[in-house]
Model the fold of this input.
Amino acid sequence: MKTTLIMILSIVSFMSAQSFDYVGTGKCKSCHKSDKKGAQYKVWLASPHANAFETLKSEESIKIAKEIGLEKSPWEASQCLKCHTTGYEMGGYEVKDAAFWEEKTDRGRPTKEVKRMTGLQAVGCEACHGPGSKYKKKKVMDALYKGETDPASVGMWRVDEGTCKQCHNEASPSYKPFNYEERFKLISHPYPDDLK
Ligand code: HEC
Ligand code: HEC
Ligand code: HEC
Ligand code: HEC
Done:
C-alpha cells in the first residue's frame, strides 16, 4: 500500500518535472520587446547576462581556466557552463547535444533545435523565470499577470535572492559579494507605470 503510494507519487513528480521545457530566450522576445510594455527583452539584451556565454571565450576566462587547471576550454566545460548559460543539465541542454555547438541547418536555415539552443547560450529569461514551455502562451501569461493562475503550476518560478545565488555564490571563480538590492537595480526590467 505504502510502496504503491510512493510509486504513484514519484511517477507524478517525474511527469511534472518532465513537462516544463526550456524554449530559449528567442521565444520570449516577440511579446516582451515593445517599449509600451517595458521592453524587458531589450533591457535584458543590454545587460551582462545576455553576454555570459560569450564571456567564457574571453582572454580573462581562458586565464581563469588555466589557473584552476581546467582540462577543457571554458566554453565547453561543465564547471563554467552551469552558471554562464541557461538550463544546463536541468533539461535545457547537455554537453553532448550537438545542436548547442553546431549551427546545423535545414535548407539554409537553423533547425528548430539549433534555434532553441542558441536561445540558451546566455543567462536568459528562463534562468530566472523558469522553463517556459507551459507558460509562454498569451492566455497563460495574461492569467499569470492577473493572478488567476498559480505560477508553479505552469513552471514559472518565484524570483528572489535565492534565484540569483544559484550562480552568484562562492563557487564562481570571480565571485564578488552579492547584495541583492543593489544588484537587482542593475538588471531590473519592470512594467511601465501605466501598464494596465
Ligand atoms: C504570446 C506572447 C508572450 C510570450 C511568447 C511570452 N510572454 Fe510573458 N507575458 C505576456 C503578457 C501579455 C504578459 C502580461 C503583462 C503584459 O501585458 O505585458 C506577460 C507577463 C510575463 C511575466 C510577469 C508575470 C506576472 O506575474 O506578472 C513574466 C515573468 C514573463 N511574462 C516572462 C516571460 C518569459 C520568460 C517568456 C519566454 C519563455 C515569455 N514571458 C513569453 C506575453 C508573452
Ligand atoms: C544562471 C546563473 C545566474 C543567475 C540565476 C543570475 N545571474 Fe547574474 N550573472 C551571472 C553571470 C555568469 C554573470 C556574468 C556575466 C558576464 O559578465 O558575462 C552575471 C552578472 C550579473 C551582473 C553584472 C555584474 C555586476 O555586478 O556588475 C548583475 C548586476 C547580476 N548578474 C545580477 C543578478 C541578479 C539580481 C540575479 C537574480 C535576480 C542574477 N544576477 C541571477 C549568472 C547568473
Ligand atoms: C557558481 C556560478 C559560476 C561558475 C561555476 C562560474 N562562473 Fe564565471 N561568473 C559567475 C558570475 C555570477 C559572474 C559575475 C561576477 C560577479 O558578479 O560575481 C561571473 C563572471 C565571470 C567572468 C567575468 C569577469 C568578472 O570578474 O566579472 C569570467 C571571465 C568568468 N566568470 C569565467 C568563468 C570560468 C572560466 C568559469 C569556469 C571555470 C566560470 N566562470 C564558472 C558565475 C559563475
Ligand atoms: C537575472 C534574472 C532575470 C532574468 C535573466 C530575467 N528576469 Fe524578468 N524579472 C526578474 C526579477 C527579479 C523580476 C522582479 C521580481 C518579480 O516580479 O518576480 C522580474 C520581473 C519580470 C517581469 C514583470 C515586471 C514587473 O514589473 O512586475 C517580466 C514581464 C519579466 N521579468 C520578463 C522577463 C523577460 C522576458 C526576460 C528575458 C528577456 C527576463 N525577464 C529575464 C529576474 C530576471
Notes: The chain has a mean pLDDT of 92. Residues 48-49, 51-52, 55, 83-84, 123, 127-128, 159, 163-164, 166-168, 183-184, 186-187 surround heme C (ligand 2) (CB under 6 Å). The radius of gyration is 19 Å.
